[in-house]
Specification:
Elements lengths: L9 E2 L2 E2 H35 L4 H10 L3 H13 L6 H38 L6 H27 L5 H17 L4
Antiparallel strand pairs: 1-2
Helix pairs in contact: 1-2, 1-3, 3-4, 4-5
């Protein structure tokens, strides 16, 4: 039915057999990483019910915030290591991995900031009800800071010179700090 020689056909520098193996590796990695993340998150959630600390809740929340896109890109990167790729293709896969990692790190950092702000809000609300509004503003500013850093690192990864942007953000940060000094 199939000619055995088709598996030895070279397509983009690799045989069809190597492409199928790489696709299989990527599929196994996606399924395996999803299972590991789900099992570990479930264990932390179970542990969270038996402990007084909230750190295990945070870890379970971070694992829940791990996006499928991140897992897929990691799996594709892992599978690509089995292929003979040109320098350009290797660079594209590496940049995709770094950008996806930055996106995921931004989501994790946002969740961590929200966790600590919520914990502080819970403690301080009893003494001062106005803390909720202030913590909302602080949370927004922290989120802007996290995503600004992620954006700058992403631009740097893409080869764009960010020194002028960093200088502008520094001056802008000083201006904002002076403007909210009385608040």
């Amino acid at each position: 039915m199939f000619d055995a020689a088709i598996w030895d056909t070279v397509f983009w520098g690799n045989t069809i057999t190597r492409w199928v193996i790489a696709a299989g590796i990527a599929l196994v990695l996606v399924v395996g990483l999803r299972i590991v993340a789900a099992v570990v998150a479930k264990q932390f959630k179970r542990l969270a019910g038996r402990t007084d600390t909230d750190i295990d809740d945070l870890v379970a929340d971070l694992l829940d915030k791990t996006k499928l896109l991140f897992i897929v890109v990691v799996a594709v990167w892992g599978a690509s290591r089995t292929l003979d790729m040109t320098e350009g293709a290797t660079q594209i896969v590496r940049v995709a991995l770094v950008l996806t990692l930055l996106l995921q790190a931004g989501l994790w950092a946002g969740a961590i900031v929200n966790y600590f702000l919520a914990a502080y809000r819970k403690k301080a609300e009893a003494d001062d009800p106005g803390v909720a509004t202030a913590m909302g503003a602080v949370g927004f500013l922290a989120s802007v800071a996290v995503w600004s850093v992620v954006f700058l690192i992403a631009l740097d990864t893409l080869g764009i010179d960010i020194t002028a942007l960093i200088a502008g953000l520094g001056v802008g940060g000083i201006a904002i700090a002076l403007a909210v000094q009385n608040v």
